[in-house]
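Sample intake sheet
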Amino acid sequence: MRGAAGSVPAVADQIRERTEANERFFSLEAERIARLCHRMAERFARDGRLVAVAATPVARSDARHVAVEFVHPVIVGKRALPALGLAGEGGDPEAQARVVCEPEDIALGFGEGVTGALAVARERGCLTVAFAKGSGAEWEFEPPTADPFVAQELVETLYHVLWELVHVFFDHRGLLEGRHARPVHDTGASSFLYPFLGEQEHDLEAIVADVRRSVLMKAEEVAALRAQTLGEGGEVLLAAARELRAALDGGGQLLALGNGGSATDAMDLVADLRAPWGGGPPRRALDLTEDPAILTAIANDIGTDAIFARQVIAYGRAGDVLVALSTSGNSPSVLEALREARRRGVRTIALVGYDGGRVAAEELADHVIVTRSEHIPRIQEAQASAYHVLRELVERPEPRE
């Protein structure tokens, strides 16, 4: 029996909840998001940095995710912007903030346990942003849902949108107060006397309105993509959850992997399994992106294609399940890991974008969920919904016929 969007009922409910929360959140916050993009651009134009702060394993994945997106933009033509993550493995977030934060920085606080760090950042003159009420941040955004998975997905879309649209204001440098003198127009021989002469712009409200419309368009895009991913992939997710539950109940473990932003999604999935939010026991899970010593040793001595396959050789056993995340479905390191897992009797689940890439074409995974888009931020946001639903389905009793 199928429900909305052609999916099975359990997944149709997940689609509906996400679609409604997404619409409420971004219709309410689009204006503030646009203005925050402007304020962030001003900070970056004054050589500020983005400092993402987290204290919990789940929040750590978001801090790492937003940092990698700003430093290594996947959107062609966008500049790299300075960003770093301060996570729990580095010690007390407040103590780290005291060492790291500078007056022009932008501090983003994720999850619980970061109010002290945000207070330090605000004292230093940083622009402060958080994703829950009561944080003490200058800018607070609270997703309108009690479901922590859905809330995290909305936050991921929000920080992706901030990253994408902050760049709009760099094309209008005359609107950035306190910026350093970096003219982008030819002002002739007098430019050395009047460094901002070529940057005079006054219509901030028109640019903010454009950015606001872009926020709403991106929110609509990801809502449709979540519905496609979960709707088309509903049966696959149910089958994958069934197999994963049997493996975990039988003493097996989950191995998770991905590159870049997908690496942080692997972190998130593992954190969700080890410390479940929605009920059920803690589950055995291993993040193959977690240890930089192992990753860099393999990359240096063998090559980057082997960074996950060598770990599958070390850790993977028959009865385990590997979850691979890839926006393209073509990453060599992901392909090699899937092949190695199959050789070792490890069952495989792949979340991929575009048309599924080589993962789907070559049938390299036992269960493949395809997010049909070429826009990497939106793919990652829809994939987060997919693995969150997978996690919930693992602990959900099978419905009676």
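Comment: Residues 1-7, 181-200 have pLDDT under 50 and may be disordered. Strands lie at 50-54, 83-86, 106-110, 127-130, 139-140, 254-257, 285-287, 321-326, 347-352, 367-370.
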